[in-house]
Amino acid sequence: MTNTIYDIIGIGFGPANIALAIALEELAPQLSVRFFERRARSVWQPGMLLDGSDIQNHPLRDLVTPRNPRSRYTFTNFLHEHNRLYEHLNLPLHYPLRLEYAQYVSWAANCFQRQVDYLREVIDISPVAAADGTLIHFRVSCSDGEYDARSVVLAPGRTPNIPEPFNRTVDTRVVHLDNYLPALQQMKARGGDRVAVVGGSQSAVEILLHACGESSLKRVVGITRNFGYRQKDTSPFSDEVYFPSFVDTFYSASPEHKERLRQELVHTNYSAADIDVLNQLYVRQYNNRLLGKDQLMLLTCMETEDCESSIDGVTLRLHHFLSGKTVDETVDLVILATGFLDLGVGPKREPWPHVLKTLSPLLGAEHRTIEIGLDYRIRLRGAANRGASLFLNGLCESSHGMGDAGSFSLLALRSQSIVRSLCQHLQEPVVGTACS
Ligand SMILES: Cc1cc2nc3c(=O)[nH]c(=O)nc-3n(C[C@H](O)[C@H](O)[C@H](O)COP(=O)(O)OP(=O)(O)OC[C@H]3O[C@@H](n4cnc5c(N)ncnc54)[C@H](O)[C@@H]3O)c2cc1C
């Protein structure tokens, strides 16, 4: 343990806190900051870096451009510094390849190496109080020690959603899509050749296509409770959900209106896929039929009732909700493309990320729900506070709207809101140029 009290500790060094590091350098370089990242380096969703797949955001909605287009950390400057600008602009693609955007994210992260401790996982955060009980700062506990900071910005990414019946199974052959590529390699090393993909999202369709391209796989089964794989709502009107102004609209809406907006707009990003991958999957299925190949099987209208492990594999009991028939499907690997949890109470929600458990009395344990300001600062209850601040960066879909956790679109402006609020609570000036 050190005696240093940092102004800020950032937990996680994925896109959300990389965007914050850039904003801090450009707007408040006087603040002392350390980031803790549990991986060995910053890589963007490495378990889903599928060859040939593209990103789902306009590349200019990157880590910084919407806040400061003149920054050296823009995607455009990344291309320029790698001498690829013209070649990139000449690509016959709607959006960039995930591989290239992931390289951009790692490149930006590497510019901040001196502020980041890799292979350092945060296990807990606890309050530190003065003799009179006033909260003065936080203690961040890691596997290798404890570190103190006046403010903490938590950006660990969302918790994977593991629905029933899979949450009753402890089996390394049942994994969330976060781990698709390593799990596929491990399955192949064990001699397995049957994969099931549960869910109807963009990722589910991408994984099905990728798995079909693996010639060693004998069976690739897609399982969805929907009638078919649904197309995303890409109407430009609906896509205004990713505008900064939508954050204000959503944040100030009543709980009933938030739910109504969510239901209407959910398919802009969730439980649906882009037309290019849907078309590829449909053609793949038809092509297989022409060739008499049964590698790909798409099972729709299917609820998974049970998931049982045995030496032969993982057996899923599937119930067709229209016919009432039940079938068993045994595979060597189950990939859950079943989404992520939002904050709150109810289905597909968690009250707060696990790492905040010790702070729960300050978070509103009696209501099991966190109160978050428009500036992403958690309202701490109970104790008097001498400026200690706790922020959520990239976990606020339930309070701030659909563009918050599931997209790059608002990362840059969100980091500006957080930096401004940090400076206000640390009583420090914003020194750089900020967009209004
Ligand atoms: C498969 C997939 C594809 C996506 N594609 C797109 C896309 O094309 N366009 C788009 O706009 N959005 C996309 N998204 C959403 C996008 O990933 C997020 O917008 C972005 O990754 C969020 O960044 P983040 O930093 O909040 O979380 P993450 O990217 O999850 O990063 C969180 C980081 O925190 C670290 N961490 C977690 N817990 C701890 C801890 N306790 N201690 C230390 N470190 C910790 C993790 O190792 C990780 O590096 C995609 C999401 C997924 C899952």
Describe what is shown at a glance.
With 436 residues, this protein is an alpha/beta fold. The protein has helices at residues 15-27, 75-81, 85-89, 98-110, 180-189, 202-212, 244-251, 255-265, 275-291, 360-363, 397-400, 411-425, and strands at 5-11, 33-37, 116-118, 122-129, 135-142, 145-154, 174-176, 194-198, 219-223, 296-299, 302-310, 313-320, 326-331, 333-336, 342-343, 349-350, 389-392. Helix 1 (15-27) links the parallel strand 1 (5-11) and strand 2.
Q: Could you give the count of β-strands? A: 17
Whole-number count of domains = 2
CATH architectural group of the largest domain: 3-Layer(bba) Sandwich
Q: Superfamily at the CATH H level of the largest domain? A: FAD/NAD(P)-binding domain
Average pLDDT for all residues: 94
Order of helices and strands: EHEHHHEEEEEHEHEHHHEEEEEEEHEHH
| Distance separating the two termini | 40 Å
Bound molecules: flavin-adenine dinucleotide
Low-confidence stretches: none
Using the alpha-carbon principal axes, give the shape.
globular
Structural class: alpha/beta
Question: Rg, please?
Answer: 23 Å
Structure, described:
This protein folds into two domains: 5-159 and 341-425, FAD/NAD(P)-binding domain (3-Layer(bba) Sandwich), CATH 3.50.50; 166-232 and 270-336, FAD/NAD(P)-binding domain. It is globular and about 70 Å long. The chain has helices at 15-27, 75-81, 85-89, 98-110, 180-189, 202-212, 244-251, 255-265, 275-291, 360-363, 397-400, 411-425, and strands spanning 5-11, 33-37, 116-118, 122-129, 135-142, 145-154, 174-176, 194-198, 219-223, 296-299, 302-310, 313-320, 326-331, 333-336, 342-343, 349-350, 389-392. Helix 1 packs across helix 12 and helix 6 runs parallel beside helix 9. Strands 1, 2, 3, 4, 5, 6 and 17 form a seven-stranded mixed β-sheet that branches. Strands 7-14-8-9-10 form a five-stranded parallel β-sheet. It is of the alpha/beta class and 436 residues long. Bound molecules: flavin-adenine dinucleotide.
